[in-house]
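Exercise: predict the fold of this chain.
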Amino acid sequence: MRGFLQDLRHALRLLVKSPGFTLVAVLTLALGTGANTTVFSLINGILLRPMPVAHPEQIVVLAARQEGSPGFQSFSYPDYQDIRSQTDAFSDILAYRVSLVGLSVDGKGEHCVVSRVTGNYFRTLGIQPALGRFILPSEGQTPGADPIFVLGYAYWQKRFGGDKSVIGKQVDIDGHPVTIVGVAPKGFAGMYSFLNMDGYLPLSAAAGSRGSTPVEETWTHREERSLELRGRLKPGVKLTQAEASLQVVALRLAEQHRETDKGMRLNLFPERLARPAPDPEETVPKISLAFTALAMLVLLVACFNIANILLVRATARQREMAIRSAIGAGWGRLLRQGITESLLLALAGGMGGLLFGSWASRFLSTLPLGTDLPIEFNFQPDVRVYLFTAILVVVTAVLVGVIPAFHLTKTDLNHVLREGGRGSSEGRQRHFLRSSLVMAQLAGSLLLLVVAGLFVRSLAKAEKLYLGFDPNHILNVALDIQEIGYQEPRGREFFRAAEERIRALPGVESVAQAFSVPMGLISSQDGIIPDDQPLEPGQVPPAVFDNYVTPGYFETLRIPIKRRPNALPIPAPGAGLRAFAQHSGADLGAAGEPGTPDCCDDPRTGAGSCRYRENHGAGSPGHKRVPVLPFGCAVERRDGAARVDPGRGWRVQRCVLCSGTADT
């Protein structure tokens, strides 16, 4: 210990005597360490940080796959009940689905993201309420019953100011009264770490089910797959054992319910490896490894740089080391001295890198995302980040200090003392070592420059990418009238009057209404069943993303249509449905035939639209026959897009309007 303290004091004196070198070395290592700390903080926030629940290592994600259907799919409530009752590898299995609702308190409404959960949700996770109580396992068993609501902690603080008297208060969710019974604990965001749930409803509640299949149908229809499942393994049960027991259940379901579950297979994933959703390709972990490798390369280049400088300094100190060796210092002591000096540099660089990484992580965590949804990323450093940085410091010290120190052990003491330091830099071995470090540094730097250049080039192309519509001079207004309890008849009149008033404003060229806008976070998805291609037993209809629009939508957004044989007037409620569908390059049938499209595309990108004619047949329960786009079916969240004449002096902007009254 005494010898180490002497080496430490000697190394400090040497570094203080060379402030320029010390500053450059510390900043260089801080940059490399900071890049790694930042990347690891991102990976930690997305993949590594455990859920704030009891024994998070026991939580697993269930995923279903059927033959002939790409990717994984959600579960139906009857399948959930069968899986839960027929397997014994789990302490319990919970189900949930995420919904966007309108919550109104004291006449003021706003969007909320809630989880509709089974009664065993909180008990399975093993968490305790911050206030009040949770949804009980005995609740949520009857469709339409138990209109209760558990607030998320962050939403409780934001909307109610942390008021403890909120328990027992009645609020309206999509026009349905519910009673607040509890508050979730601080730090618990739900099943997605980046999506902070505003609240939790029983799965049986009618509130929060708008725009989806009614609760009664969800309770009984196996083809209505909208639930995500999480399970807690029993202590001592391995993932492979639980998955084997699930396969037995899957085979039983496939045999008993051929119409819906034929060819079903069940898979299990550790919760950390299924974020944000199960992915057989493991895309997120692979991307994380790629960015980690790039950050490590930055640190490696920094280490080569400092090692080369230390090698030059070691050459200049050869006579000093030879004299110390001649008076009794062993090569172990000299090697330790070199490692101590590099350790001090690595420690200072690691502290600087940790500060830089903490600042970068905090900056990335607070970046505005341009949405009112409760999307929050927590990349703040924790114990894992500090431990990772400590390991980086040790590795850096070894990389930086071993090469120069090992070089000293190969020095001929008699030659150095005889020459008095003259010509000490002429050895072939020394030249080869320094040249190798320079070449490695140049190769790593060139690789990083190439990767950075590709990123910049991709960003430049993405900035100029044609999106299929004209985003210039568009004023987008987002409304959700169900936040204030408007139902369909009153909602139709509200939007009709709003469109007329906007159209009459000076400078407005065109107005359209739609369920969602391009590049928006809100979307709609339906199953499509061609008339001439009926589904086989157990086959899942291919899902398509669709949009509900008024006739002026394509003109307002200036979406080019190559061929449009007939005008499409807006249908009356309940009339036959027509739809435009994006061209995918496939042969979708003859134009004008029922259930087949009239394809068109933009010559520059191939993006465009296709027209479907009248819809025939009701289709299977829970699925539409074609992607439905004509506006005027269900009163939901709508985005009104207005094209503004630039010569009128309008300021081009994008806003979100939460309407309080019909005249707002």
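Check your answer against the key: The two ends are 76 Å apart (CA to CA).
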